[in-house]
């Protein structure tokens, strides 16, 4: 190989080396950032509350005896057609064939729209509901629960059907902050009820369950 050719190859190698060095170089760039502070994410609430109604403004349960109403004004509604208003007393307590209408106002005191999806009854704390009379009563006492504003029947059957945990409402209804939603309870003691329930007192709690109303 002559000298000119060797010089040419050496020059090409030198150029390649320079190219590799240039490819591995780093460069500085300008940077900056911005921060938006104190962002609050506050969860909404559903706060279900109730009060009894139907013209009877005394606080307390919907169904009650004269002993729980010191004024003695509203022990029970008398059966009849149409149903008598509160204050028409069925003196002496429940008897076979009695039909009583009461009402509950439900309020959503929270901030989110909700829907009422379930209901149930429980034996009140401290009550000693048991025995033959009790078993007859919960099966002979029919409870019809309605949302009259939308003509929805929420439950219609024996009290016993509400005592085994939450019962799904087939047609849930919305309840918005503020409310109220007026719910009626019609209680009817079947005429076939007998002396096993005579002179006894049974105490129950009625509960509703609400969950967030989704818009999608």
Structural features, described:
There is one protein chain. The chain is of the alpha+beta class and 216 residues long. It has a single domain (51-212), classed as Jelly Rolls. The protein has two helices and eight strands, in the order H-E-E-E-H-E-E-E-E-E. The protein has helices at 3-23, 131-140; strands at 48-53, 99-108, 114-123, 141-147, 152-158, 167-175, 181-189, 204-212. The chain is elongated, with a radius of gyration of 37 Å. The N and C termini lie far apart (83 Å).
* CATH third-level topology: Jelly Rolls
Topology as H/E string? HEEEHEEEEE
Cα distance spanning the termini: 83 Å
Determine the number of helices (DSSP H or I, runs of at least 4 residues): 2
Give the total of domains: 1
Report low-confidence residues grouped into runs of 5 or more: 2-22, 72-91
Which key terms come to mind for this protein?
2 helices; alpha+beta; 216 residues; elongated; 3-stranded antiparallel beta sheet; single chain
